[in-house]
């Protein structure tokens, strides 16, 4: 159909407009226009699409479920914070045509992305943008306009020379492969070619032994280096002849450096690489605050999209605030505010679909994609009344199974909790009461208790028993027994001090602290806080004053071992960059093992005193910032404006390690800036350090504008010549934007 496919775009139960949708000939762009006016309303790129959902899998489509059958409905989900596009096709066949077609177009991004594939896509996108008259050819005036769009401020004579060299047909225009030649000349990487020639005897190729030398001397690959060199040649050398001779050309060398193996992020740490058999309190856990909100805390919109986005981002601890609704149906919203409400049943239905689908980064570009089924534990904080199913014993082998050691302490490991959903909430009585039946709480007097000490302990136990009885009666008056029985691992208890917790609390209990309370404890009792978190879970939540859904720094909470540091996932910024940076490792499963000195209940570590950490001394991190490639323009910048980029490297960790340094800015060059500057940092506690690379557009009269960033844990840094694939403010990839750096780590 020349006009495109006629479908309904649905925004609400009352807003349903007919629009024509059409995939452009480039198979990369979709536009749609009004049926009534014929005016093109919008267009989007296939590269903007994260996934396609079939049926009534959005709140909007659920609201029109009685009007339109699920087989005609589908939802296009975009990366970042852009809203979903809900559509209703004219028939089930038409819907399937679009769903399957879109999935085929976005599917290649789940495969390893070579630099060649990224470049081809990038070239095609730019050609479409610059070819104003859509004749498939580009004259020199259009090329000049393209250079401005691409952040390039180039001398006109030099640009004309590149244009004429690429115009093999001498037609005065570039088309097809001619434009590819022009683009390649434009993107010549002199710094990479110089490095290549340093190890190549003839300057044209790297022999197998020369490549091995480079991998050992510069990339610090010390195991199976010859086998790795063969693999890299087979994988990245574009010439069949060169592959057969076991040599690597300059093009193949560049493709390797831009690949997953050439990334700053250690590829071995992208998979599940940590010990997953430790107790739950030994892990940092990706956690969200008021997960249902996608805007502010007072009047913001509540949506199941908040849960979907958080879970796909690797979040393992969710918040479900449940309140009485009309006709006895529970609703989820921020109580005592004006936020919108969503039915509780929609929330649990969504969690059932997405709780164990985990995030996996797109290998080549360092961005986000999601696939496969995870095996991690999912936390839910709040009041859940529908699980376990009627008749199912919560103490058996169902979703709430856990085990208790003979001493009465919870010994369940993360590995044993796979595919389980744990509920955090209030509980009537003790965990043992749920497992063994109700009974009086009694102090377990050990065999070595004797004389006056034993008598004093029995007296204290009696007092605690009286207090416990009063609290138990209050709980019974306000909490249903069936709901109480669902709380196994995470009984919520008030925090009354570390000494009280050590004497009377259990590993199966958890306390929640405001960010202000946590900061005071960090300042006054840092070591006690670390010890406490070695055996019991602690949750930190944002101040009630953060009505705009802003975030506090999670780093200071991680410094004392707090496991559940809840953030507002809907708010982009440095805090969420740190969260994504920490949890992008270990298969993106949402669990990161704490360092050994934070898992020891008798540890002497205090983040305010780095010397209290047991282990090797401080290390030196040396970063040579060499160059940048195809950096994006600043959003909403003036037409023709070109950025003046600088790079800032920030270290987050214990107070002594907090630091930042930056390069000079490069004037009018966002396409291929060269800095060649060296930054150096001393890191006292590398096990807790995160490194954030930020690119900004320098402005001498106002605050610099954000261009891109990439954050990772220090433990995941791969030394050598590496590319850093930049992410947007929302955490989505922006290929092929990257930095080229040289990393050295010394003790």
Automatic annotation (TrEMBL):
<keyword id="KW-0378">Hydrolase</keyword>
<dbReference type="InterPro" id="IPR000008">
    <property type="entry name" value="C2_dom"/>
</dbReference>
<dbReference type="InterPro" id="IPR000909">
    <property type="entry name" value="PLipase_C_PInositol-sp_X_dom"/>
</dbReference>
<keyword id="KW-0106">Calcium</keyword>
<protein>
    <recommendedName>
        <fullName>Phosphoinositide phospholipase C</fullName>
        <ecNumber>3.1.4.11</ecNumber>
    </recommendedName>
</protein>
<keyword id="KW-0963">Cytoplasm</keyword>
<feature type="region of interest" description="Disordered">
    <location>
        <begin position="433"/>
        <end position="472"/>
    </location>
</feature>
<dbReference type="GO" id="GO:0005509">
    <property type="term" value="F:calcium ion binding"/>
</dbReference>
<feature type="domain" description="PI-PLC Y-box">
    <location>
        <begin position="483"/>
        <end position="599"/>
    </location>
</feature>
<dbReference type="InterPro" id="IPR001192">
    <property type="entry name" value="PI-PLC_fam"/>
</dbReference>
<keyword id="KW-0443">Lipid metabolism</keyword>
<dbReference type="InterPro" id="IPR011992">
    <property type="entry name" value="EF-hand-dom_pair"/>
</dbReference>
<dbReference type="GO" id="GO:0035556">
    <property type="term" value="P:intracellular signal transduction"/>
</dbReference>
<dbReference type="Pfam" id="PF13202">
    <property type="entry name" value="EF-hand_5"/>
</dbReference>
<keyword id="KW-0539">Nucleus</keyword>
<dbReference type="InterPro" id="IPR018247">
    <property type="entry name" value="EF_Hand_1_Ca_BS"/>
</dbReference>
<dbReference type="InterPro" id="IPR017946">
    <property type="entry name" value="PLC-like_Pdiesterase_TIM-brl"/>
</dbReference>
<keyword id="KW-0677">Repeat</keyword>
<dbReference type="GO" id="GO:0005783">
    <property type="term" value="C:endoplasmic reticulum"/>
</dbReference>
<feature type="domain" description="C2">
    <location>
        <begin position="599"/>
        <end position="728"/>
    </location>
</feature>
<feature type="domain" description="EF-hand">
    <location>
        <begin position="154"/>
        <end position="189"/>
    </location>
</feature>
<dbReference type="Pfam" id="PF09279">
    <property type="entry name" value="EF-hand_like"/>
</dbReference>
<dbReference type="GO" id="GO:0005634">
    <property type="term" value="C:nucleus"/>
</dbReference>
<dbReference type="Pfam" id="PF00168">
    <property type="entry name" value="C2"/>
</dbReference>
<dbReference type="GO" id="GO:0005886">
    <property type="term" value="C:plasma membrane"/>
</dbReference>
<dbReference type="InterPro" id="IPR035892">
    <property type="entry name" value="C2_domain_sf"/>
</dbReference>
<keyword id="KW-0256">Endoplasmic reticulum</keyword>
<dbReference type="GO" id="GO:0004435">
    <property type="term" value="F:phosphatidylinositol-4,5-bisphosphate phospholipase C activity"/>
</dbReference>
<dbReference type="InterPro" id="IPR015359">
    <property type="entry name" value="PLC_EF-hand-like"/>
</dbReference>
<keyword id="KW-0442">Lipid degradation</keyword>
<keyword id="KW-0807">Transducer</keyword>
<dbReference type="Pfam" id="PF00388">
    <property type="entry name" value="PI-PLC-X"/>
</dbReference>
<feature type="domain" description="PH">
    <location>
        <begin position="1"/>
        <end position="107"/>
    </location>
</feature>
<dbReference type="InterPro" id="IPR001849">
    <property type="entry name" value="PH_domain"/>
</dbReference>
<dbReference type="InterPro" id="IPR001711">
    <property type="entry name" value="PLipase_C_Pinositol-sp_Y"/>
</dbReference>
<feature type="compositionally biased region" description="Acidic residues">
    <location>
        <begin position="446"/>
        <end position="455"/>
    </location>
</feature>
<dbReference type="Pfam" id="PF00169">
    <property type="entry name" value="PH"/>
</dbReference>
<dbReference type="InterPro" id="IPR011993">
    <property type="entry name" value="PH-like_dom_sf"/>
</dbReference>
<keyword id="KW-0479">Metal-binding</keyword>
<feature type="domain" description="EF-hand">
    <location>
        <begin position="118"/>
        <end position="153"/>
    </location>
</feature>
<dbReference type="GO" id="GO:0016042">
    <property type="term" value="P:lipid catabolic process"/>
</dbReference>
<keyword id="KW-0472">Membrane</keyword>
């Amino acid at each position: 159909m020349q006009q495109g496919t006629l479908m309904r775009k649905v925004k609400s139960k009352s807003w349903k407009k007919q629009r024509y949708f059409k995939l452009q000939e480039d198979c990369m762009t979709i536009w749609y226009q009004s049926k009534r006016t014929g005016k093109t309303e919008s267009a989007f790129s296939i590269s903007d699409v994260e996934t396609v959902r079939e049926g009534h899998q959005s709140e909007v489509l659920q609201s029109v479920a009685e009007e339109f059958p699920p087989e005609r409905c589908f939802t296009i989900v975009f990366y970042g914070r852009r809203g979903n596009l809900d559509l209703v096709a004219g028939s089930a066949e038409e819907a399937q045509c679009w769903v399957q077609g879109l999935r085929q177009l976005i599917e290649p991004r789940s495969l390893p992305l070579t630099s060649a594939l990224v470049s081809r896509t990038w070239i095609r996108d730019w050609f479409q943008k610059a070819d104003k008259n859509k004749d498939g050819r580009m004259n020199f005036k259009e090329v000049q306009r393209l250079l401005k769009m691409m952040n390039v401020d180039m001398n006109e004579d030099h640009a004309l020379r590149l244009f004429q060299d690429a115009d093999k047909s001498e037609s005065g225009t570039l088309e097809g492969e001619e434009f590819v030649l022009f683009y390649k000349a434009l993107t010549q990487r002199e710094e990479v070619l110089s490095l290549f020639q340093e190890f190549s005897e003839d300057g044209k190729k790297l022999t197998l032994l020369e490549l091995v030398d480079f991998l050992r001397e510069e990339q610090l690959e010390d195991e199976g280096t010859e086998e790795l060199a063969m693999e890299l040649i087979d994988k990245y050398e574009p010439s069949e002849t060169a592959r057969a001779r076991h040599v690597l050309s300059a093009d193949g060398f560049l493709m390797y450096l831009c690949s997953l193996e050439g990334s700053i992020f250690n590829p071995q740490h992208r998979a599940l690489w940590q010990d997953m058999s430790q107790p739950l309190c030994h892990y940092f856990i990706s956690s969200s605050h008021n997960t249902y909100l996608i805007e502010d805390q007072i009047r913001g919109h509540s949506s199941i999209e908040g849960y979907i986005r958080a879970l796909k981002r690797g979040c393992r601890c969710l918040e479900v605030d449940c309140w009485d609704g009309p006709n006895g149906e529970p609703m989820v919203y921020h109580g005592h505010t004006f936020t919108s409400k969503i039915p509780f049943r929609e929330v649990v239905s969504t969690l059932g679909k997405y709780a164990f689908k985990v995030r996996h980064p797109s290998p080549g570009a360092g961005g986000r994609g999601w696939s496969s089924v995870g095996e991690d534990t999912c936390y839910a904080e709040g009041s859940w009344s529908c699980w376990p199913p009627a008749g199912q014993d919560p103490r058996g082998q169902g979703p709430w199974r856990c085990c208790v050691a003979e001493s009465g302490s919870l010994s369940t490991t993360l590995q044993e909790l796979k595919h389980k959903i744990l509920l955090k909430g209030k509980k009537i009585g003790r965990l043992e009461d749920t497992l063994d039946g109700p009974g009086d709480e009694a102090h377990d007097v050990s065999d070595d208790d004797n004389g006056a000490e034993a008598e004093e302990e029995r007296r204290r136990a009696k007092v605690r028993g009286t207090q416990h009885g009063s609290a138990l009666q209050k709980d019974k008056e306000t909490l249903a027994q069936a709901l109480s029985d669902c709380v196994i691992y995470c009984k919520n208890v008030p925090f009354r001090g570390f000494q009280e917790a050590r004497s009377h609390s259990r590993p199966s209990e958890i306390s929640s602290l405001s960010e202000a309370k946590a900061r005071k404890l960090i300042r006054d009792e840092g070591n006690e806080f670390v010890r406490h978190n070695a055996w019991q879970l602690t949750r930190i939540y944002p101040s009630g004053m953060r009505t705009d859904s802003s975030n506090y720094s999670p780093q200071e909470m991680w410094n004392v071992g707090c496991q559940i540091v809840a953030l507002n996932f809907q708010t982009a910024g440095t805090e969420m960059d740190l969260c994504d940076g920490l949890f992008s490792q270990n298969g993106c499963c949402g669990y990161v093992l704490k360092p050994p000195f934070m898992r020891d209940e008798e540890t002497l570590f205090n983040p305010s005193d780095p010397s209290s950490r047991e282990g090797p001394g401080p290390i030196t991190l040396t970063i040579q910032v060499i160059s940048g490639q195809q950096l994006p323009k600043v959003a909403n910048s003036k037409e023709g404006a070109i950025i003046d980029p600088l790079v800032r490297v920030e270290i987050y960790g214990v107070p002594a390690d907090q630091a930042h340094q930056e390069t000079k800015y490069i004037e009018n060059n966002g396409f291929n800036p060269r800095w060649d500057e060296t930054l150096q940092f001393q890191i006292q506690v590398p096990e807790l350090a995160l490194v954030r690379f930020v690119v900004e557009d320098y402005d001498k009269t106002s605050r610099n504008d954000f261009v891109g960033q990439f954050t990772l844990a220090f433990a995941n840094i791969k030394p050598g010549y590496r590319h850093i694939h930049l992410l947007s403010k929302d955490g989505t990839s922006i290929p092929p934007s990257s930095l080229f750096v040289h990393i050295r780590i010394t003790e």
